[in-house]
Amino acid sequence: MASNKNMKAKPYYHQQNTNAAASGGGGGGYSSESSNGGSNSPSPPPSPRRHASISHSRRRLRTKSFSFFRRDSFALTVSFIFRRNLRYLVLLCLLYVSGLIMCVGPFAGLVGHTPVPGSVYRSHEIFGKLWDQIQFDNSSAIDLSSVWKYKRLKVQKPCLNSTVGRYFGIEKVAVAGLLNAILVIPRFEFNSVWKDPRVIRIAPFANRLAMNVPPHIQLLRCMANYKALRFSDPISTLAEKLVKRMIEKSSGTGGKYVSIHLRFEEDMVAFSCCLYDGGKAEKLEMDMFREKWWKGKFKRKDRVILPGLNRINGKCPLTPLEVGMMLRGMGFDNNTSIYLASGKIYQAERHLASLLKMFPLVYTKESLATPDELAPFEGYSSRLAALDYTVCLFSEVFVTTHGGNFPHFLMGHRRFLFDGHSKTINPDKRKLVLLFQDMNISWVTFKDQMEIMLSENDRKGIIVPRVRKINRKTSIYTYPLPECRCLQQSHNTTLQLTQPAR
């Protein structure tokens, strides 16, 4: 019986192991007969497959490990290559900077390479080449009354409150709240630059209030800038006289004139670090001026002066000659009256000669006013600038040549007065320097480019920035619309704005 039991049991265990092997269970996969060393036992079955989830998990683990290994190897390889080639990268950068200095810097004349277009001042050579064509250009001159063709649709917008008195009461509280103050008192200081002890300076508030403030604060700015602030009586009285005299001098063009804010004073030329046609003597003079007024600021080791690059980037003040050629190219003829707003021009006799050949009717505050009238203003550049500001404000065309607060405020004021149009020529100096260095350019080609530039300034003159709620990125003093629109009055011509001289 025992043997029968054993004989029956063997297939049972063998079937169990076979099933186990087939089902992927654990164990060696051999029958009980195999373990007893039987000679007639069947050959062992193939090794069982591991469970799918375990196999996939281990496979993913190996894949991740291999991926991490590849990433680390790649990072180590890149790091090794970078460290090994770092000196070559530094050398390449140094070679690039050296090449740039040689091309547009002071060493450009020592090497045989052609200078980068726009990097060298050659306007005087272009003028000499084209002067005959400029002088005998018989094409029709531009009419000052029709310079500006773009017009904004007049949309009257009421102010927020019906009574100005109540509005000011609210705004005083609003500004005090912004400043976390109950009363704001301006502090009067002596200014070493202006040399005027009566200049107003609000410290430390000046130039610290952001442009993106609530609309009612913006309207307060509009009222302060265009309604409340006024020049003192001595300034406004003489300024009105200058405007009236300028209109009389412009009788040939219907009383309309062009004003130019020319920034070609000695300090501006020196600060710009630009080179013109004065050669080594000019460079030495400018170096001495910079050292006198700014000490070692321009000689620091971290300061690299590249006059050619400054010119290419439009950072050099336009010369009187360049401004004159630009205006003649735009169509203004030699009968155009020009008011020149400027300080003391650098080497005035030499640099103004070409401008006077193109435009004989050039006037300044010194030529319009008597010495006695100007005597109270001498030595006070802020008062003299106020005179220039007023005469430029009422010109039919205003030309800015080098940026700054003066033209930015003036453009905004003109937009406020003239139905949203700045009536301003703001030249593209990066384009101009390329034209002024092209010795093969003809007068016809130059004129075509200037007419395009004038048309572009006409279009940009009426631009109103998009203001969404309080998100304003541009200055409200340069672009007063739309916030200041409710304060505007309808003035389509500059002549209606002038008051009789007192």
UniProtKB/TrEMBL annotation:
Keyword Secreted: no
Basic residues bias: start-end ranges: 48-58
GO process terms (BP): fucose metabolic process
Entries under InterPro entries matching the protein: FucosylTrfase_pln, GDP-Fuc_O-FucTrfase
Keyword Calcium: no
Entry's transmembrane regions: 88-111
Parts forming coiled coils: none
Start and end residues of each stretch annotated as Disordered: 1-58
Protein name as annotated: O-fucosyltransferase family protein
Organism: Citrus unshiu
